[in-house]
Structure to design on (138 residues):
């Protein structure tokens, strides 16, 4: 007996076969990148929080334009810590102007590799949000 498949039946067969292949040979799909709340262990900058603060103190320069205009505020950066600890996909979520935004990005790009976040014991790409604070002294 010869059976003729219509388009719906053929599509169903294709999806069924692809789904079976993933069940047999695939692994559980992990959303990529993960938020810090989804991790077993979050990414850590070199030297931990104290190391990060030292890094900022040694590298962050208050832009002259911002200083002259007395601009202060928190630049919020969003970026990804890759599985190898490198930083990618930097973007500014909150701007304060006066060159502070670009200075925050510049310093972030200088950061050495972080220890990546872990999920189920494996390094994963992680979305990070951090404030870079610009405050003038008295």
């Amino acid at each position: 007996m010869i059976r003729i498949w219509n388009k719906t039946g053929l599509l169903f067969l294709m999806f069924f076969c692809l789904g079976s292949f993933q069940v047999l040979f695939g692994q559980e799909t992990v959303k990529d990148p993960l938020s810090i709340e989804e991790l077993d262990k979050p990414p850590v900058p070199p030297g931990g929080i104290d190391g990060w603060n030292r890094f900022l103190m040694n590298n962050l320069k208050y832009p002259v334009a911002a200083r002259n205009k007395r601009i202060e505020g928190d630049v919020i950066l969003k970026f990804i810590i890759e599985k190898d600890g490198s930083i990618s996909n930097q973007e500014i979520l909150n701007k304060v102007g006066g060159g502070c935004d670009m200075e925050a990005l510049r310093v972030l790009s200088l950061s050495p590799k972080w220890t990546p976040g872990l999920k189920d014991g494996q390094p994963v790409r992680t979305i990070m949000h951090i404030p870079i604070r610009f405050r003038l002294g008295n």
The first helix runs from residue 7 to 25. The domain at 30-134 is CATH 3.30.2420.10 (TolA/TonB C-terminal domain).
